[in-house]
């Protein structure tokens, strides 16, 4: 059950608003949550656009990277988080990336 006494805003980011919206809709349906039961924001960010990545990081407390391969896509996110003051965590299992 969702605890509505705490204010938590979840942001989902990606290059395409319709695709991110589709992912969000799937998450809400899977968890049986109505859109008005959670605060969320869709953020358009592209690793090829440093300004959009920095803007995303500045809006965030924590960024969870889920798009690999991290050797190709991870550095831009980490750099944005360092510059924007956000914590970073990812789901990688790519040993060379971790090292």
Describe the protein.
The chain has 99 residues and is of the alpha/beta class. Helices cover 42% and strands 20% of the residues. It contains 4 helices and 4 strands. The chain has helices spanning 17-30, 50-58, 70-84, 95-98; strands spanning 9-14, 39-44, 62-65, 87-90. The strands form 2 sheets. A two-stranded parallel sheet has the order 1-2. Strands 3-4 form a two-stranded parallel ribbon. Strand 3, helix 3 and strand 4 form a beta-alpha-beta unit. The longest helix has 15 residues, at 70-84. The chain starts with 8 loop residues before the first strand and ends with a helix.
How would you write the strand order of the largest sheet?
A: 1-2
Straight-line distance between termini: 38 Å
Oligomer: single chain
Query: Could you give the order of the helices and strands?
Result: EHEHEHEH
Task: Please state the overall shape, judged from the principal axes of the Cα atoms.
Answer: globular
Count the strands? 4
Main β-sheet: number of strands, strand sense, barrel status?
2 strands, parallel
Number of continuous helical runs: 4
Radius of gyration: 14 Å
Arithmetic mean of pLDDT: 87
Helical residue percent? Answer: 40-55%
User: Structural class, please?
Assistant: alpha/beta
**In percent terms, what proportion of residues is strand?**
15-25%
Which stretches of 5+ consecutive residues score pLDDT under 50? none
